[in-house]
Amino acid sequence: FKAYMNKLLLTLSSIAMLMLASLTTTAGAWTIGATLSSNSLDTAAKEDVDSDGTIDDKKTVTDDFIVGSLFLENTIMGDRAGITFGVDYVPFDADVKRRSISQTSSKAKAAGASPQSSGTNSVSASIEDHTTYYIQPGLSFGDNSLFYFTYGFITADINGSSTSLSHTDIKKTKSMDGEKYGIGIKSVKDSGLVLKLDISESTYDKVTFKTSNDTTGTADLDNT
What is the pTM of this model? Predict the structure, then answer.
């Protein structure tokens, strides 16, 4: 699917650029704005207690939240096509809610720990400095409207935190990259106001956390 979308977006971008080069174009129009988005974040987590390649536990959870962002973009329009280059930044943290489970462990957590203990395991995470660099080739319709495709490259940090009976605690920050695909509609009013409505899917590279006593945890995130 990713390969198909990349080829499609490359083709659309090429078509848009060729049309812009051959048709009368307007000067690039800069837009500064804010977005409000409803998100559904799926996190698939896996745990390898001994880092031996065997998955000892796994779970997928979904977090729904609303978040705002700021964007800056430049749109170049031709008679029938246009292309937008932009950057979107989320100035807030997005939280993966803390999950907990009661457990009895026969494995010592660390040197000197009791060989048999009971308690609560918990894990949580937050995503911050989420930045998307995007391109949106599109076709115009009506007087001042554009139907566009989106491809974006994402950078972000994920702060992971966990406490467990079977391994040492985790509190680390990792960087992660991702890709964004979407479609949308943009309308420019006579006053200069720009309105956009779109839907997108973002996929992120897997992030791995390793404890001091060789337990490996992996998180795989996807957001709609």
Answer: 0.74
**Residues with Cβ < 8 Å from 195, sequence gap 6 or more?**
186, 187, 189
Could you give the 3-state DSSP secondary structure of residue 8?
A: helix
Between residues 66 and 133, the one the model is more confident about: 133
41, 73 Cβ separation under 8 angstroms: no
Which runs of consecutive H residues, i.e. helices, occur in the chain? 2-22
Query: Which of 20-34, 60-74, 184-198 has the lowest average pLDDT?
Result: 20-34
Band of residue 46 on the pLDDT scale cut at 50, 70, 90: confident
What does the block give as tokens for 46? 């896996």
Amino acid at 127: I
Q: What is the DSSP string of 73-102?
A: EEEEE-SSEEEEEEEEEE-S-EEEEEEEEE
Strand partners, 218: 46, 208
Token pair 């998100």 in the structure block, residue? 39
Structure token pair of residue 187: 């309308």
**Is residue 213's pLDDT more than 50?**
yes
| Closest to 40 (Cα-Cα) out of 209, 213, 208, 200 | 200
The residue-averaged pLDDT of 176-205 equals: 92
Check: CB of residue 57 under 8 Å from CB of residue 46.
yes
